[in-house]
Amino acid sequence: MSERGDIVLSARGIVKRFRSGDSELEILHGIDLDLRAGERLALMGPSGAGKSTFLHVLGLLERPTHGTVDLDGRDAWSLSTQERALLRNRHIGFVFQFYHLLPELDAVENVMLPAMIAQSRGDFREDRHQHIAKALDLLSNFGLAHRLHHRPAQLSGGERQRVALARALFLDPPLLIADEPTGNLDRDTGEIVLELLFRAQEERNLSLLLVTHDERLAERCGRVLRLEAGRIVGALPGHG
Amino acid sequence: MYRIFLSWRFLRSRRTNLIGVFGIFLAVGALILILSIMTGFLEETRRSARGSLSDLIITMPPYSESRRPRDPAPVLEVLRKDERVEGASAHLGWMCILTRQDERSLRILVDSQSSEIAGIKLTGIDPATEDNATEFRSSLDKVGRADDGTIEAPRLRVASLDDPFAAPPDYNANVGRPRASVIVGEKVMTYHGLRRGSFITLMTAVPDPASDTGWSAKKREFVVAGCFRSGENEIDLERVYIDRGQLARFLAGVSEDDPLPEDSILYSEVLVKLKDYASDAEAVRASMGAQLFQAGLIDETCSIRTWEEFRGALLGAIENERVLMGIMLSLILVVAGFTIFAILSMMVTEKRRDIGILTALGATPRGVLVLFLLIGFWDALIGAFAGAVIGTWMAIKIDPFERWLSDTFGVQIFNRDVYLFDSIPSVVTPMAVAAIVVGAFVCTLVFAAIPAWRAASLDPVEALRNE
Ligand SMILES: Nc1ncnc2c1ncn2[C@@H]1O[C@H](COP(=O)(O)OP(=O)(O)OP(=O)(O)O)[C@@H](O)[C@H]1O
Ligand SMILES: [Mg+2]
Question: Is the per-residue pLDDT at B147 higher than 60?
Answer without folding.
Answer: no
